[in-house]
Amino acid sequence: MLATTIEALPAGEVLNRAQAGDHTAFAEIVREHQSLVFSIACHYVRDRETAEELAQEVFLHLYRNLRAIESAPHLLNWLRRVTVQRSIDQTRRAKYRPKSGLESAPEPAAIPEHRDPLMSTMLRKLVGALPERARAVVILRYQEDLEPSEIADILELPVGTVKSSLHRALGLLRGKLERAGKGVRHESV
Amino acid sequence: MNRFEDQLREAMRREDPPAGFTDRVMRRIQEESRPKVVRMPVMRWLSMAAAACLLLSAGAWRYEQYRGEKARDQLLLALEITGEKIALTQQKVDSISQRTIP
Question: Which of A81, A87, B40, B63 could serve as B44's disulfide partner, Cβ 3.0–4.6 Å?
């Protein structure tokens, strides 16, 4: 009954309640943003168990720093920034980062059709093999659907750097897929 | 929007964490909020006990030393007083002996 009431509240009000010490409100924040945090971590580290541990750490960090959050949009960007940063730290610590980047990733055997789960699996693997910055940019661009200026704000990078990272990452990914045998068609919608 | 970007979007779509994620986070938060009972390891207890024994022994030894010094001072004082009294008595005896012999 109480959970339903909390869910019905605007995001700003839930945040206010959580900041006042309401654990039910904080649990609602976790529920609301768990897929965002978990997915960024999972796409970055490519390991569900590590991603869950990392996502838990992000929410614990949020709980300790809840007073610093100014608004619901600020909360979203804070979660994206902290998750990306922790994912980068995790890969550096655990040496998940590939030694020679995408070039060393195995060539995909075949290119499945659009929306094929195998194609998605292959792309996730290739994104996971991108260099650190490019990986973060691609995840924020295609998972979170953010514009380069928003990504630049989160990663604290110049917009030009984000655009060039994105361009280079897409080129690497396309090249890898094309070398697999079938080219990637560019179709305008 | 090209097809490749659509495929990327599809591959990068959000997914939920394993069931019970929120509960696990809240459990960790509750554990963190709980006041912690500080448990000292055995070695720390032993070293603290040894330090306390050492302090007590040093204190007892110093107290015994203090008592010895005090007793010596008292004895010296008593000897001094006795010496003075004997000297005084000697003077009186001498003066009486001189008066009785004309």
Answer: B40
